[in-house]
Specification:
Layout: E1 2-12, E2 15-31, E3 39-41, H1 45-50, E4 55-61, E5 64-83, E6 86-98, E7 125-135, E8 142-152, H2 157-164, E9 167-173, H3 174-183, E10 203-206, E11 214-226, E12 230-249, E13 256-257, E14 279-280, E15 292-315, E16 318-331, E17 353-354, E18 361-370, H4 381-387, E19 390-399, E20 403-404, E21 424-425, E22 428-429, E23 435-436, E24 440-454, E25 457-466, E26 474-477, E27 494-497, E28 502-510
Parallel strand pairs: 10-15
Antiparallel strand pairs: 1-2, 2-5, 3-4, 4-9, 5-6, 6-7, 7-8, 8-11, 11-12, 12-15, 13-14, 15-16, 16-17, 16-18, 18-19, 19-24, 20-23, 21-22, 24-25, 25-28, 26-27
Amino acid sequence: RYQWTHSTSWTKGRHFWKFGADIQRVAADTSFPVSFGGSFTFASLPDFIAGRVNTFSQGFGDPAIQLPDTLYGVFFQDTFRISPRLMMVYGLRYEYDAQPQGIARNPNNPIEQGLQTGIHRDGKDFGPRLGLTYSLDASGKTLLRAGYGIFYDRLFLLVARNALLARETITLSAAAATAQLGVGAFPQSTSLPAGVPLPKPSLSITDSRMDTPYSQQANFGVERQLGENWLAGATYVYVRGVRLLEANNINLAPPAVLTLANAAALGVKSPNPQQFGRPYYTAVLNPNYNAIQMVSASGGSTYNGLDLTLQRRFRNGLQLRANYTFSKAIDNASDFVQAQEPNDPYTPGAERSLSDEDQRHRFTLTGVWELPYRGAAGENRMLRGLAADWTMATLMTFHSGAPYNVLVGSDVNGDGNSSTDRPLVGGVPLGRNTYIGPGSGNVDVRLSRQIPVRERLRVQVLAEAFNLLNHVNYTGINTTWGTGLTPRSTFGQYVSAADPRQIQFGLKILF
């Protein structure tokens, strides 16, 4: 990565101007040679000894690709003190992301057919900014703050790699895989081997109109100084995510609702209870491909939060900061990976629900306390030396549970993706992220003391405790419903937890 930046500041009257530019050149060379030498798998040790292969897979094409990307940014900003009690900051930033372009393709190579030659470039990324600070009283102890801005994200080069890399994998199973064991892997090649029955490939592409994701952020708050050492504040925060990345299989033909009468015609021999009454996919729009996974800027999100803060500046050996946030985050895709694709590709609007990042309540408390010690007159110098000059610090975090997506655990709608199929409850599909997990609480404490030995030599002793209260914080839940009308007995069980209490002691020598 090469970066060039420059900024100029200029003060004139009540204005403080800033101008600048930022250019970054990212030279990304990536190689992803999965199974390019061939890979045999066996179902058991006896099968391995007998030479019975379960699957054989090998990658073909070119596992390496260069994805150069240049990022341009220019801005101006003015801090304008309108009056002694009112200050305004406004500005504009323009960004341009020159995504990879001009990838050469061989139209005679089936691996490269259908691949794009580059990623769409968005030239409309203007981001205005505005901020206001107003003092409600002449002393400046009560301040109103407000701000608004548009902030652009970056398109991950991972998106470009998945869409532009010329790579395809052949998979053989059972008898065909066992026969391949006798001759070994195919010679590595940028083309597919001849004489092998090839399954229909899948394709990864990006929307040819995919613009840069951005967020609109706004806030309004009030701060009040309490006495000489305390400060209290309340701030409302609003964030709207626009054109967020999400993926979908666009090669699926419209589905038919699966019933007992049409199950055989749809190719479902023994349907399970979770399949009846559900849209079922049996055909594709482009017969040359199996799935066509397209990443597009069609996602969206909203965040509303109230932030309350109380802090004490460091004085007389004590500093504290307490923060409580009450918020709600909603989106229709928290990421663009396959596990975030729609449950039903033809009804993407049903995915709008709580975001994976939603956390309704969150409280944190941090503090530093230089422990006071006042010994009695004539007290033992050794006792005074052991008890004085200690510092205690703490970090406490408590928050409510995150949402989980309840899944059937298998591909019950035939779209080729089992990681997003949610169960039918009373004949109605369960909403996304409807299961709220347990909350979490954690208290960390540190006790330390620095002992001067010489002018340039100090010894620090410390004791640290993580999860001091030994609270069980669960981090994983079994959210697999199963294929029945009622959930499995294991549904809702905890499967993992964070670390229990840990205590450690340390000694540092500083010189």
